[in-house]
Design brief:
about 425 residues; Arc Repressor Mutant, subunit A; GAF; alpha+beta; DNA-binding; Beta-Lactamase; GAF domain-containing protein; OmpR/PhoB-type_DNA-bd; four-stranded mixed sheet; about 10% strand; about 45% helix; five-stranded antiparallel sheet; DNA binding
Length: about 425
């Protein structure tokens, strides 16, 4: 079976593939369908890039300046894994043809290393530290797509959404905290067309696994952790075992994790279904199926979790208290179970977002404000755009864009200018 994450199958002609990919890319940008030989993973990424209004000829933004970058890198978990990246990929990065890059979970480049000549060429497309290479800002690319798909992937030449990047080929793998399952970022190697080889994908995957094992040595104790921010199906990690839960089971686990003393059947039903009339047997069947998945973790009378379950939502809430909005945003990949309409989940989701926004609006720091407006859930947030425009000096980069966003959103919402 052909590996869908590899860019070229054995015997493929790279030059012919590039030509056909460019034709398919131009057809798609002109409003046509995605046609072969575009791989499904690339086709999905092109659609996400188009939906996010990524510019096919644009310049990737640099979001972290020297001071903000230094602080962010020093406090990031992946800083501990930097010796592993350099040991396994450093020699390749210094061979004059490749770059080693590591980004955070938002796609912001933390380290870009390699031969000075290759780095200078990459600077022309803003492949530099502090730049944001997620799909929303850079279109299809290996680190950004690895983050979006949560899987190691190669992106070959004209598979890149942005034409300015189509001279390059890259392979990247996502990095996780094995204790919690939290996505930490991605490791990438970037170079020429010769990287479209199975060895490059295997190499970044092996490097990611080695880095995760290295980081796990710092937190060896068993842990039960629920990840539900920015995803519709929660991930439960129990002593290193990863369980992807269905949507209803995700809602139940979120509610029980936030009610450690437990809930009666009636209370849980109200939080799940609201005033809708639902037969008790329906909830009991859901709980029975969930117990089959999580075993003795789920107890009854009342329904509760037998041992504490940490959650990414609680982690963000704690970060707001101890580290402020910047620290909280680093662990906030999106709203809590964003598609859930369970009343109890909606209340938890709205409360966390409200607290996060309050912290943003009162901090006066443009960096977390800019980070919020660069997300799908914050791009139309008028109050935050106004706070950002006020926080930026008149001649600072991004001030004109912030003022333009404020004017646009005031018109959309029918709000008079001040």
């Amino acid at each position: 079976m052909v590996n869908p994450w590899l860019a070229l199958e054995a015997g493929a002609d790279p030059a012919a593939r590039i030509a056909s990919l460019r034709r398919a890319h131009e057809t798609f940008l002109a409003g046509g369908p995605v046609a072969p030989p575009v791989r499904p993973v690339v086709a999905d990424s092109w659609r996400r890039s188009a939906d996010a209004r990524a510019a096919p000829d644009g310049t990737v933004p640099v979001e972290l300046d020297d001071e903000a970058l230094r602080a962010h890198r020093d406090g990031h978990p992946l800083a501990r894994a930097l010796p592993v990246f350099r040991e396994l990929l450093g020699a390749i990065a210094q061979d004059g043809a490749h770059l080693l890059a590591v980004c955070d979970a938002q796609g912001r480049m933390l380290w870009v290393e390699g031969h000075p000549g290759v780095r200078r060429r990459a600077e022309s497309m803003n492949f530099v530290v502090g730049a944001r290479w997620d799909e929303q800002h850079a279109g299809t690319n290996a680190p950004g797509t690895a983050l979006a798909a949560d899987h190691a992937v190669q992106i070959f030449a004209a598979e890149h959404y942005n034409r300015r990047v189509q001279r390059w080929t890259c392979a990247a793998a996502p990095l996780h905290d094995r204790r919690t399952g939290r996505l930490l970022g991605a490791v990438d190697i970037t170079g020429g067309d010769h990287l479209a080889h199975p060895h490059s994908l295997a190499l970044v995957q092996a490097t990611a696994r080695a880095a995760e094992a290295h980081l796990a040595a710092y937190t060896p104790e068993p842990c039960t952790f629920l990840t539900a921010l920015g995803r519709d199906e929660a991930l439960l990690v129990v002593d290193g075992r990863r369980l992807r839960l269905g949507r209803r089971h995700s809602e139940i686990m979120v509610l029980l994790a936030h009610h450690p003393d437990g809930l009666t059947g009636d209370q849980l039903a109200l939080l799940l279904y609201g005033e809708r009339e639902v037969r008790p047997v329906t909830l009991r069947a859901e709980l029975s199926r969930l117990r089959h998945l999580v075993g003795p973790l789920l107890a009854s009378r009342p329904y509760r979790l037998r041992s504490p379950v940490d959650t990414d939502a609680a982690t963000v809430d704690t970060a707001l208290t101890t580290g402020g909005p910047s620290a909280a945003l680093d662990g906030y990949p999106g709203p809590l179970l964003p598609l859930s309409d369970a009343p109890g989940v909606r209340r938890l989701r709205d409360a966390l977002e409200a607290r996060l926004r309050r912290s943003l609006l009162t901090c006066g720091d443009p960096e977390p404000l800019r980070q919020w407006t660069g997300t799908p859930w914050g791009e139309d947030d008028l109050e935050v755009w106004e706070a950002l425009a006020n926080a930026l000096p008149p001649h600072a980069p991004g001030h004109v864009r912030a003022r333009g966003a404020v004017r646009r959103l005031r018109e959309v919402y029918g709000v008079a200018g001040r």
